[in-house]
Design goal:
The protein has about 260 residues and is α/β, with parallel strands linked by helices. It has a single domain, classed as Zn peptidases (Aminopeptidase). The protein is about 40% helix and about 20% strand. The protein contains eight helices and eight strands; from the N terminus they run H-H-E-E-E-H-E-H-H-H-E-E-H-E-E-H. It has an eight-stranded mixed sheet with strand order 1-2-4-3-5-8-6-7. Helix 7 crosses helix 8. The radius of gyration is 17 Å and the shape is globular. About 45% of the residues are buried.
């Protein structure tokens, strides 16, 4: 993952500059030179630029098949610092090695819950009184932004990074709806675990550690898989970023291969 942009992101984080603007500044610089990385701003209920939530869109190399679309979300709670850092580093890594994401498009929100992030709170007082899930008529700005995003594209995967502070292994919870989806992604996670990646995973857990927040999407012809990755907080941030990148790429590659073979 070591590139100049990646090193800048890590330097900002390690020097205590863990606010969103500092973490994504190297990515914005990179987007000015890159034809494959686009920066945008998610619009919820207000047209105010301050309330718009920055996102990054990475397009891998072109293939003949329809692209696999991935929505990556960090900063779901305002006190999370590692998930925005990991999301930013994942974007930098993917842009630097476009062959890794041939036929894949990734839209990443390093900090989804911008209001809580700026307030330095897990959730704000207003957020405590409203729904923190999509499709429940929530009035929260970041929920509206992500609902709009989910309506805009037919995503194959929604991947949410969370912090599991005391864990030595990543915890993956996968909400899978379609039978083909279950078969493809279950096999991908089993294969990844068998080659030495240290994580636990559960499909459609009865007692989830993290709430399911984005699916099912009402009136959608097909449902994306919602994958929640609890990063191993007892390990250093470099290891957490490596674990997150490995899981994201493995899942996206599995969907791409299955689509190429006509299984999805």
């Amino acid at each position: 993952m070591e590139t100049l942009t990646d090193r800048k992101i890590s330097h900002h984080y390690e020097s205590g500059k863990q606010d969103l603007e500092s973490l994504i500044a190297p990515l914005i610089e990179l987007s000015e030179e890159s034809s494959s990385l686009v920066v945008g701003y998610g619009l919820g209920q207000s047209a105010s630029r301050e309330e718009m939530i920055p996102y990054f869109h990475v397009c891998g190399s072109y293939t003949d098949q329809a692209p696999v679309r991935v929505l990556l979300i960090g900063g779901w709670a305002g006190t999370e610092s590692v998930t925005p850092y990991v999301a930013a580093r994942v974007v930098a890594a993917l842009e630097s090695k476009l062959r890794l994401v041939a036929g894949i498009e990734i839209t990443a929100y390093p900090v989804a819950n911008l209001d809580a992030h700026r307030a330095g709170e897990y959730v704000t007082r207003d957020q405590q009184n409203d729904s923190a899930k999509c499709w429940e008529d929530s009035s929260l700005n970041h929920i509206k932004v992500l609902e709009n995003e989910l309506k805009r594209y037919d995503f194959d995967l929604v991947i949410v990074l969370r912090e599991n502070l005391r864990a030595h292994e990543a915890q993956v919870e996968a909400w899978l709806v379609e039978d083909e989806q279950k078969s493809v992604l279950s096999a991908a996670l089993d294969n990844l675990a068998s080659v030495g990646h240290s994580f636990n995973w559960k499909p459609n857990p009865v007692r989830p550690v993290y709430p399911r927040s984005f699916t099912p999407i009402p009136n959608a012809e097909r449902q994306p898989a919602e994958i929640i990755i609890g990063l191993p907080g007892a390990r250093d941030t470099y290891d957490q970023a490596q674990e997150g990148l490995g899981l994201i790429l493995s899942l996206a590659h599995a969907v791409r291969q299955a689509r190429n073979e006509g299984r999805l």
